[in-house]
Please model this.
Amino acid sequence: MKCAIHQPQFLPWLGYLNKISSCDVFVFLDNVQYKKNEYQNRNRIRIGNEAKWLTIPVSFKFGDTINQTLIANDPRWRKKVISSIEYSYGKAPFFKVFTPRLFEIIQSDWSYLAGINQATVEWLINCFEIKTKLLVCSKLPDFSMDPTGRLIDICRHVGADTYLSGAGAHDYLDMEQFRKSGLNIEFQEYLHPVYPQCYDDRKQAPEFLSHLSALDGLMNCGGGEQGRKILRL
Model:
């Protein structure tokens, strides 16, 4: 059994979904420290010929975990996010198919960042018809505080014999600790696809913008079996 573990992100990129779809169990690592200016409360979409941020404003103090990080008490962000999506993708091929449920999620009364992040990930995997089992780390037993030890403990808890890691994890994983644990480790290999992106005149854009939110791929290419082609499955 293969397990992947990652912090919950807001409308993450295609590689995040590729990782989920490539394993049997995926664990939201929601009880680690929130990191400012990363992808935990924001992601990018294409507006015109530029990549622009969709951001959830948050309220936190240093040391707060992702599931302790509050969404800021400013209702205007919901309207801004929805308006940006409508402006960018309103005439995209699959806008009307998938956005009603997304807008319901955004407009719901969320208190904590982890909740809406997990909901947007679950929405995306449902759109792409990914069947991987999802778990939330904060709802599991306490594990080691050591970063590598925590990953090993989670894999053992869910019964996995293989950990699927992100490609960049070579820099911070304790490989010797993994070797001694008896667990196998695989590193994700995901080559971002190029696909037609809608543009101002709704013709194919003159230049492809890569590594946007998976929302971009979904709006332009669709979900299900057709959409999974851009996940490289």
In short: The mean pLDDT is 92. Helices lie at 14-21, 76-89, 95-107, 113-127, 147-158, 175-181, 214-221, 224-227. The longest helix spans residues 113-127. The CA atoms of residues 163 and 185 lie 5 Å apart.
